[in-house]
Amino acid sequence: MDFIEIKDLKYVSAIAKHGGISKAAEELYITQPALSGYLKNLENRLGEPLFERIGKKLVLTWFGEQFMTKGGEVLLSHKHFSEEIERLFHEERGRLSVGFPTLRGISLLPAVLPEFSRRYPNVEVQCYEEDASMLDALIRLGQLDIAFFNCPIDSDNIDYQLISEEEIVLTTSKDDPIISYAVNKPGCKYPWLDLKLCREQKFIINYPEQRTTQIAAQLFRQAGFTPRVSLKIRNLMTTIQLSAKGYGMAFSSEKYPKELCFGEKPYILSIGEPVIMMNLIVGYRKNTELSRYAQEFVDIAKRYY
Q1: How much is the pTM?
Q2: Alpha-carbon span 30 to 7, nearest angstrom
Q3: Is 240 buried (19+), middle (13-18) or exposed (0-12) by CB count in 10 A?
Q4: Fold for domain 92-305?
Q5: Please, what sign has the CA dihedral across residues 25, 26, 29, 33?
Q6: Which class is domain 6-91?
Q7: Per-residue pLDDT reduced to its tens digit, 248-284
Q8: Alpha carbons 138 and 73: distance in angstroms, whole number
Q9: Which of 16, 68, 79, 248 has the fewest CB atoms inside 10 Å of its own CB, making it the most exposed?
Q10: C-alpha 190: how far from its chain's center?
Q11: Alpha-carbon gap, residue 128 to 102, rounded angstroms
Q12: Is 74:262 a contact under the CB 8 Å cutoff?
């Protein structure tokens, strides 16, 4: 015997309720001949009649009654299931897995999570702090819905949207004499310093896989010198705080020294000809359509971050 479909149960239920084909066909929005043919084919599949005619009415046979006793339970469960799915759809229940580099979370989450949670109180947000290469892998494995990166990204399997554009700046102590050589320059947010003048300065450098270090290497090549390194360290906040204390100059996205420094803030300088801009993007698996609440998380980030 072939399996029974929900459609079979709905059609038999409608015929039993109305005691005939005509009104049942109206309820089901099909023609009478189509419903009659469907019933005949179903009875042939089952090998038993579901209805017998008594007078002008179609009445369930004993087999038909047994069929609909169990079938009615299935229809009721299906109805409850459909209602629950509809409710979940409208209430936007779900889970959103978000990844970002550790330092990004300090500014990103306070800017986005409170408003997102007000709009989607039934969506659980799971946060993952990893380096960019791990975030890339987690997206490709389907373990993250979205992740925030600095461009460029290395994977062809990730689509992305632009969140913000940030200037790469040089930070140092407010007492550093090199500041006196900085000038106001059109197109620069901060006093501009020719990096060639920093040949004798000491620099705090991050690790090679970090985007700031890659940009710094490009700037040093343009300036024509190899930097004197006072310290190599991964943590960007520590890097910036040390630069504020005069331990060495450091490269950073402009957002970090402006918004995230605790205690003494460094002096911020524009560098490069032209200045270097870094794009913050949100990435997700290629050819994947974001859920409504995932897209809303992204849109909030675009507005406030």
Answers
A1: 0.63
A2: 13
A3: buried
A4: D-Maltodextrin-Binding Protein; domain 2 (3.40.190)
A5: positive
A6: mainly alpha
A7: 999 999 988 887 766 788 999 999 988 989 889 999 9
A8: 42
A9: 79
A10: 33
A11: 9
A12: no
